[in-house]
Amino acid sequence: MTKPRIGIIISSTRDTRFADKPAQWLLDKVKDHPDLDFALIDLRDQDLPFFNEAASNLWMPSSDPRAIAWQEKLAGFDGFVFVVAEYNRSITGALKNALDQAYKEWNRKPFGALAYGSMGGARALEHLRLIGIELQMVPLRNAVHIGAGDFFKVSPLGANAPMSEIEGNLEGSLNAMLEELTWWAKTLQAAKA
């Protein structure tokens, strides 16, 4: 059986986003993972229209070729880690739109998160987990949260220090999330075989 493929989805598309910094840190940490293969999916690079289909692709095929291309991209992954920016106590509009553009391609796949914001992105991640349940995904219990003093230490809104200055606070939760993600990805991959 091949290693499960995990897409790391950057959910913010703003020009001045913070997401690149934690996403790069995460990529560096997982690049040699023994059980999972990771690939970056930046929503900035996806040509997604606002959702305007007659229905979800659960009920009928999508008509917009951009939505179909997105669905085909997602179908090639066995799980996801979302880099979750918290905007106004929820996920970004870009992420919600990307989630709505597919349905079947999210089903029975686990997802974890690296969330950030003053409250560690906890409120946004809570919303994402609820959406994931509706999409028949498996939201993981463990997640990495960058909040409060750590967030302002590495964010351009604060000291803009390198991620290495806070990684000691993040590695325990990262390891727990990766262990859980590995178990679910392998289990669900085997169930599909």
UniProtKB/TrEMBL annotation:
SUPFAM superfamilies the record matches: Flavoproteins
Domain named NADPH-dependent FMN reductase-like is located at: 4-147
> InterPro entries given for it?
Flavoprotein-like_sf, FMN_Rdtase-like_dom, NAD(P)H-dep_reductase
Which Pfam families has this protein been placed in? FMN_red
Q: What is this protein called?
A: NAD(P)H-dependent oxidoreductase
Species of provenance = Paracoccus aerius
High-level lineage: Bacteria, Pseudomonadati, Pseudomonadota, Alphaproteobacteria, Rhodobacterales
